[in-house]
Amino acid sequence: MAHEQSALHAKTVALALYQIRVLLSGYLGSQSEGDMSVRQAAHLAYALHNEALALVEGGSFDSAGVIRRLASCPGRLASAVCSTGSVVSGRSTMTGQTG
Fold first, then answer.
1. How far apart are the two ends of the chain, measured CA to CA in Å?
2. 18 touches 53 (CB < 8 A)
3. What is the pLDDT of residue 75?
4. Across 52-78, average pLDDT
5. Number of C-alpha atoms within 13 angstroms, CB side, residue 46?
6. Is 98 within a domain?
7. Is residue 36 one of the residues assigned to a domain?
8. Are 70 and 78 within 8 A, CB to CB?
9. Is residue 95 part of a domain?
C-alpha cells in the first residue's frame, strides 16, 4: 500500500511538472524577454518533461540522463549540478534549505 501511495504521489508531482512546462513554454529560448527566474524555470521544466510523462504513464527514466539535462539548464541549478555531479535528495542545492 505504501508503494502504491508513493507511486501516486510521484505521478501527481510529475503531472504538475508537465503542466508547468506547458504553461512556461513561451519563455523558452534566448530571445525570450521574460524575467530570468521564469526563463530558468521554463528550461528546467522542459529538461524534465519527458521523465514526468514517463512517470505519469507508469514508466521509469534514466537518472544519468536527467543529470546531464539539468547540467545544461541555464542558471544556478546547472552550476549546482555541475559542482556536485548530482542533485542532493531532500536538499535544495540552489538555496541550501532542506526540503
1. 24
2. yes
3. 64
4. 80
5. 17
6. no
7. yes
8. yes
9. no
Overall domain count for the chain: 1
CA 67, CA 82: separation in Å to the nearest integer?
9
85 DSSP assignment: S
41-66 burial: b if 16+ Cβ within 10 Å, else e: bbbbbbbbbebbbebbeeeeeeeeeb
Residue-wise pLDDT tens digits, 69-80: 777 776 666 666
Element (H, E) at 2: helix 2-23
The residue assigned the cell 524534465 is 48
Q: For residue 49, give the nearest of 7, 14, 8, 13 by alpha carbon.
A: 14
Does the pTM surpass 0.85? The reply is no
Domain that holds residue 28: 2-84
Cell of 34: 521574460
Answer yes or no: is 43 within a domain: yes
The torsion angles phi and psi of 4, rounded to 5 degrees, stand at: -65, -40
